[in-house]
Amino acid sequence: MAQATLTIDLNAIAANWRALDALSGQGTETGAVLKADAYGLGLDKVAPVLAAAGARSFFVALAEEGAALRQTLGPGPRIFVFSGHMAGDAPKLRDAELIPLLNDAAQLRRHKDALPLHPYGLQIDTGMNRLGFEPPDLVTGALPAPPTLLISHLACADTPDNPANAQQRGVFEDLPRIGCPRSLSATGGTMLGASFHYDLTRPGIGLFGGMPFAAARPVVRLSLPVIQTRSVAVGEFVGYGADWHAETPRRIATLSSGYADGLIRALGGKAMLWAADRPCPVVGRVSMDLLTADVTDLPEVPATLDIIGPHAGIDALAAAAGTIGYEILTSLGARYQRVYINP
Ligand SMILES: *Cc1c(COP(=O)(O)O)cnc(C)c1O
After folding, report:
1. Terminus of the chain with fewer CB atoms < 10 Å: N or C?
2. For 31-208, which CATH superfamily applies?
3. 202 close to ligand 1 (CB < 6 Angstrom)
């Protein structure tokens, strides 16, 4: 079989949620952010495991994602939508009982007109300039009823010393008190300590084993089948563009998976594959369905090599490609055999 295997440890996801939950006090609820199909790992598999672990508040980017999540979770848990109330969203928000986090006066007006009695939350921009009301535009007298939740988002929470963190928290502190629970922190903010926790935290990447939650349990393993192995003589090249030449006699393995599977082209010549604890450098360019690795030092070439696993997680692979673990996870393609380790 040439299909690569992506193993997703649902137990580790539940353990990471519990560990993040333990970082904040009794008065802080821990939510779960499951946008982009649970960071690419499968919303329908991940959500029930987190609900069973105790999560009661979920977050997605789009109303469509919220509707799918409601199908999976059934009634009960709260589902918040970061993009707020967009034109045409009303039936989905109503039928799936989603709570839009309204981002400006136009969304507030749309919500009041279409669903006057339906719960909503507010997102406030405290400095990131991406989503949310500018604080002066938040005229509390215009609110139809008290919001369910007031949120903002930190731009630099993965760098604890960045002064933007305290600055944004200060703006958040100074917002008019409208008597509803407040939420400021994703994974990074949760690591910054109690003064960033407020009533509800919103971790995403930490659940899936990514930085900045350094103590996370790894969640994914990606094993690529070796299709073919060959000897390459001194001076011969490997791959498109003849980018890489053998300087000594080499054994080269060709593995199944390439940039169409999310193993982006920037990994060429940079990433490592692993045969248990022995590293095998990726050589030459990554192509659409294949990549090539130097396996000269292996006494025996196994049937598969890992590109994500115990010796190199999503952040190590991301670093090789000059990106972040989030992008590696959400790019993992549709051609893998997905194997879930269940609780
Ligand atoms: C994606 C997102 C989160 C979760 O962020 P992580 O860094 O993955 O924990 C929380 N809040 C908002 C507004 C987001 O967009």
Report:
1. N
2. Alanine racemase (3.20.20.10)
3. yes
